[in-house]
Specification:
Blueprint (H helix, E strand, L loop, with lengths): L7 H6 L9 H12 L2 E2 H8 L3 H14 L2 E5 L14 E4 L5 E8 L2 E8 L4 E8 L5 H19 L6 E8 L2 E3 L4 E5 L4 E5 H9 L4 E6 H12 L1 H4 L4 E7 L3 E2 L2 E3 L8 E4 L23 H4 L1 H13 L4 H6 L8 H9 L3 H25 L3 E5 L6 H15 L8 E4 L9 H13 L3
Parallel strand pairs: 4-7, 7-11, 12-16, 16-17
Antiparallel strand pairs: 1-3, 2-3, 4-5, 5-6, 8-9, 9-10, 12-13, 12-14
This protein binds zinc ion.
């Protein structure tokens, strides 16, 4: 039995999806996370017998999913046991990732280990659902052509979108900022691209959390849990457990964006007043910057941006960098609110690691402001020291979250 399966009944009772775990997928995950790894270590970590491990692994080697990388310590076969190291055969399977994060869309083709073969990306100017889906489909075709792959080579597609997602049915229930509701995303993507394989739709913050878990398992699995705070058009903070057979966020999408900061405050796209998103999301920062420019302030930003009614986050960040004090004030106010919200989430969920994925924190000045402000809100006897980390700049423009969702499906449903 796989460690952590004791949780299954509890999770099922809570109607959480995807609690299935088989020996085979557990072994494949072990090789994915810890490879190159020896059979004996897999057996020990999973508390399975070596013959069970060997039978399963022989099949994976036959199927080309796994390969042996070192024959140096081979001591001859005994009961089919060999001492070679095992790793994932990266070039065996290919996946497509699709993401919309804030105003950035991205599409890519990647191998089994998440190495990107080709990619496309840009800024969404038209928020119409059909237009965004067409952009995805066109870029999918371009990425395939550039990588030299065909639809038949693609093992799965993962799509990360902002909002409430029904993963089982591939439906986006609601995205208040883009004003999308009840969109049959996987069905529409299949119709537009002609792709006939598995398409998995996931909330974008959850997708990026899965990406952190899959591609950085060794660093994150030191602790029991981690939270992934994505600040883009909205704000979400899903939480992940490392020693559980349950895949994905244990708190749904972690819709942190609609926690009320001020009951009489700014109106939010959801219809309420004073939500966190109305103060600290990219959407709210863009809205505040437009207001500044309408009042003849934020002159640097005004000079930099192509359309003063539609500044992009990239333009806003450049204006801050170039010393626009009005833009700086808008950003600092947003960070102060974000720091309080983040501290509340840390105090409430106690994750071992807090990963922050937000373009504002490319700037060291903004990073330090967040850390200093959150310190005062965290500094009480219950604080136990979460490790706060920032996503690397390269993360913002790629679709590795989508790729990770597709790979995670493959690891879970290996035959
Ligand atoms: Zn709201």
């Amino acid at each position: 039995m796989v460690r952590g399966e004791g949780n299954m009944q509890f999770l099922k009772g809570n109607n959480l999806p995807r609690v299935k775990s088989s020996n085979q997928s557990a072994i494949l995950r072990m090789i994915y996370y810890y490879g190159p790894i020896q059979r004996a270590e897999i057996a020990e970590r999973l508390e399975l017998t070596l013959p069970t491990i060997t039978t399963n692994i022989n099949k994976m080697i036959e199927d080309g999913l796994v390969r042996q990388v070192s024959a140096a310590h081979m001591t001859g076969a005994t009961n089919g046991r060999r001492a070679g190291l095992l790793e994932i055969n990266a070039a065996r399977e290919f996946f497509v990732g699709v993401e919309l994060v804030g105003e950035q869309w991205s599409v890519c083709v990647a191998d089994f280990c998440g190495q990107i073969l080709s990619s496309r990306g840009g800024t969404v100017r038209d928020r119409d659902y059909e237009a965004v889906m067409r952009q995805f489909a066109d870029s999918y075709a371009e990425c395939l052509a550039e990588s030299g792959k065909t639809s038949e080579n693609i093992c799965g597609v993962g799509i990360g979108l902002p909002g409430l997602i029904d993963r089982e049915n591939g439906i986006l229930w609601m995205n208040s900022i883009f004003q999308w509701s009840n969109k049959k995303v996987s069905q529409d993507f299949a119709a537009l691209t002609g792709y006939e394989g598995k398409i998995t739709v996931e909330n974008n913050a959850t997708a990026r959390g899965i990406s952190a878990q899959i591609f950085h398992w060794k660093e994150l699995a030191q602790g029991k849990s981690f939270a992934y705070m994505l600040v883009a058009s909205g704000i979400a903070c899903p939480v992940f457990l490392n020693n559980s057979s349950y895949r994905g966020s244990v708190v749904g999408t972690g819709e942190a964006g609609h926690m009320v900061i001020d009951p009489h405050g700014r109106p939010c796209a959801c219809g309420n007043r004073g939500c966190l998103e109305a103060y600290a999301s990219e959407y709210s920062i863009i809205t505040e910057c437009i207001n500044e420019m309408r009042q003849e302030r934020a002159v640097t930003l005004r000079r930099l941006c192509a359309d003063p009614e539609k500044p992009t986050m990239a333009e806003i960040l450049r204006a801050q960098h170039e010393g626009d004090c009005d833009v700086n004030r808008v950003i600092e106010e947003a960070i102060c609110i974000l720091a309080i919200a983040m501290s509340n989430i840390i105090n409430f969920t106690r994750p071992d690691t807090m990963l922050i994925d937000c373009r504002l924190f490319v700037s060291i000045h903004n990073r330090n402001l967040l850390l200093n402000k959150s310190k005062s809100a965290l500094c009480n006897p219950t604080f136990y020291g979460a490790d706060i980390r920032f996503a690397e700049e390269g993360n913002f423009a790629n679709a590795l979250g989508g790729v990770a969702v597709a790979i995670d499906e493959k690891l879970e449903n290996v035959q």
